[in-house]
């Protein structure tokens, strides 16, 4: 095992040594709950979930950073709700405020757009947007971490410094989403320690997608892996800034292969990939093999299991990917 304050290495297969039965049974104060909402299929019913459940912070994807570097506001189109439901509209903004304490506008992007964009202009656009709509802040979700160069990473940190400073001066908040890894050494430029001194209010390690390292049939979030990363992140950021990202989704793949297709729980159930599946003790997730294919699902029980684990470690904030087509606590 690595030093708890060092994120350059992490447990790999020992992730499976910790099981559901190892989680302590103690009464804790409930976490501050956050959740991501993205637009269109298959998550159209996301608004039904947040209207019927107490979710403190909603992270709603309204902006995409395009490959040409432009920032595009995604607007809900009443004639095409299949593709745009839950995107930006004045009515959707009003509902977000009605059903949550905080609203963070998610900006989704990848490395091609990052290299092409004018970060100074993006900062101005995003700060003006949240001020105009009187929303809480911005959630930056720039991924394809494996393609970032040292220059990309430096520019990203400079962007976060500038955006966070502007938002905080306007009494707004900044959240960032960061990667996890299963290898002994980090495969990315990203170092969590670099963000400790930056003006980021919510640091959100996305502790899921384990299957992309080990192939079809692997859990999405093994409990041992979740435990190790949670302990590590708490040491760096403390509970006030740390928001642990946990999954509410599933996938289909060929066993042992990487033809992974993410699916909602509703989609998996419609394909008969859930009923009579087996509960995996290392993750709390439901795994069902159909021929040479395997379905892995997160349902309410597996979510509660992960929540209990991170709360038992001292976490006070959790964010769930994602609302719409999936279970809630």
Quick overview of this protein structure:
This is Chitinase domain-containing protein 1. Helix content is 31%, strand content 22%. It is built from 10 helices and 14 strands.
Could you characterize the architecture of this molecule?
The chain is built from 10 helices and 14 strands. With about 325 residues, the protein is α/β, with parallel strands linked by helices. It has a single domain, classed as Glycosidases (TIM Barrel), CATH 3.20.20.80. The strands form 2 sheets. Strands 1, 2, 3, 4, 5, 6, 7, 8 and 14 form a 9-stranded mixed sheet that branches. The protein has a 5-stranded antiparallel sheet with strand order 10-9-13-12-11. Helix 5 packs parallel to helix 6.
Tally of individual domains? 1
Q: In what range is the share of β-strand residues?
A: 15-25%
Give me the strand/helix succession: EHEEHHEHHEHEEHHEEEHEEEHE
The biggest beta sheet, please?
9 strands, mixed
Q: Regions with pLDDT < 50 over 5+ consecutive residues?
A: 1-12
CATH class: Alpha Beta
The termini sit apart by 32 Å
The fourth-level CATH homologous superfamily is Glycosidases
CATH third-level topology: TIM Barrel
CATH architecture annotation name: Alpha-Beta Barrel
Question: Key features?
Answer:
TIM Barrel; globular; 329 residues; five-stranded antiparallel β-sheet; 22% strand; alpha/beta; 10 helices
């Amino acid at each position: 095992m690595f030093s708890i304050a060092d994120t350059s290495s992490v447990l790999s297969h020992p992730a499976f040594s910790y099981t559901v039965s190892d989680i302590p049974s103690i009464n804790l104060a409930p976490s501050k709950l956050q959740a991501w909402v993205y637009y269109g299929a298959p998550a159209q019913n996301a608004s039904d979930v947040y209207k019927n459940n107490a979710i403190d912070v909603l992270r709603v994807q309204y902006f995409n950073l395009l490959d040409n570097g432009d920032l595009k506001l995604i607007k809900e189109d009443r004639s095409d709700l299949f593709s745009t439901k839950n995107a930006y509209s004045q009515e959707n903004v009003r509902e977000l405020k009605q059903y949550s304490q905080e609203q963070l506008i998610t900006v989704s992007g990848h490395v091609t757009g990052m290299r092409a964009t004018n970060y100074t202009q993006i900062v101005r656009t995003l700060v003006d947007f949240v001020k105009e709509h009187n929303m809480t802040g911005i959630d930056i979700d720039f991924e394809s971490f494996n393609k970032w160069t040292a220059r990309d990473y430096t520019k990203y940190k400079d962007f976060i410094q500038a955006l966070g400073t502007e938002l905080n001066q306007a009494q707004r908040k900044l959240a960032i989403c960061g990667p996890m890894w299963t290898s002994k050494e980090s495969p990315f430029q990203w170092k969590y320690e670099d963000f400790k001194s930056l003006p980021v209010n919510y640091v959100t390690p996305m502790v899921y997608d384990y299957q992309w390292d080990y192939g079809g049939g692997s859990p999405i979030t093994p409990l041992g892996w979740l435990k190790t990363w949670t302990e590590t992140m708490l040491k760096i950021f403390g509970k006030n800034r740390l928001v642990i990202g946990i999954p509410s989704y599933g996938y289909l793949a060929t066993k042992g292969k990487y033809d992974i297709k993410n699916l909602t729980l509703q989609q998996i159930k419609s394909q008969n990939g859930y009923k009579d599946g087996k509960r995996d003790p290392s993750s709390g997730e439901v795994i069902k093999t159909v021929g040479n294919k395997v379905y892995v699902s997160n349902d309410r029980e597996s979510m509660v299991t992960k929540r209990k684990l991170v709360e038992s470690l001292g976490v006070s904030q959790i964010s769930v990917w994602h609302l719409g087509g999936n279970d809630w606590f």
